[in-house]
Amino acid sequence: MDNICKRINELSEKYRDYTAGNLSKLVRIKSLSTREKYVQLELKRQMEEAGFDEVFIDGLGNVIGRIGQGKKVLAIDGHMDTVDLGELQNWSFEPLDGVIKDGFVHGRGSVDQKGGPAAFVTAGRILKELGFDKKLTIYFIGSVIEEDCDGLCWKYIVEEDKIRPDTVILTEPTNLNLYRGHRGRMEMHVHFYGRSSHGSAPERGVNAIYMASRAALEVEKLNERLAYDEFLGKGSITISEIISKSPSLCAVSDYARIHLDRRLTAGETKETAVKEIEEMLRGINAKVDLLTFSEKAYTGLEYGMDKYYPTWTVPEEHKAVQDGVTAFRNLFGKDPAIGKWTFSTNGIMTCGTYGIPTIGFGPGNEVLAHSPDEKVPVSDLVTASAFYAAYAYEAAK
Ligand SMILES: [Zn+2]
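A: This is the predicted complex of the input protein with zinc ion.
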């Protein structure tokens, strides 16, 4: 193993410019959610150039490259869509030029999260060059629509592509730490049904805005008493929107709706979160709705799911995590720091929904995700490409 890791380190170093160059090409192709077509074609080309055994694009538009053949399956995932650029004046460089300078690849998506796929293409190339022949199938997946609906791509991969890995590595930015979970989330609407009356005689009606306002203040209190978990932190809830209707601006409002953004910690589920709200609304003419997501992918396929993104954690002692610790230690002679993401990832589907042991390891600092001046250190890309290759050897054991 020491010998293999030495070779992996040499090759990841040798491919430093190649990896950075591939990332730069990916950054130069703008790829908002559901509009990933051209970046996917480029990623597919890169996988083919790297000598993958098979590369295809599935019905939702995910690029899937395979190396190796074995009953055991490892998937390495990175989403290829990015958020938009935001205010251009907040950037001190061109966000879509993919400039490589001063040891960084610059631009939108360099951290969140095309750096991961650029690094895993190199990992694939390294494995091919080393003649990787362990009994393991490795799928390298450039996934779609994550920014708009995390996990949707994995629902498709498991249920339609029929790929159900034994382990998943998410390549979202971890600053080269090893992550093993994050809080879940869900979005809900609460509808309030009042009764309108003439605005000159409000006492004859039931004002839906007052109903919603009282509930809003209850939501604020609910947030204070939500569960806390040592590893994941506290559950939270906030109102992100309130809308109302009435037959006229001289009438009592007869309908209001609040939009709730709920973050779920350990032990909190869709069922418990809905029940809390329903209890809060007891005796009030109101209804809770869980939202659904449905969009057309760039392939033309319409696909969706509930906007419920379950919490997930993998125990530190689990083999999936420990394989990462061993791979890191063998490569770099020290232990990785273990942690969690603040944001949400495809892990809500792989682990949160399907129970597939999932870990995170990726180049770049998550604080730069969705921010101007996004850039990733080239040295992070080198480290990540070595890590993914070494992890494959551990996972095969
Ligand atoms: Zn992301």
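The chain has a mean pLDDT of 97. Residues 148 and 322 are 31 Å apart (CA to CA).
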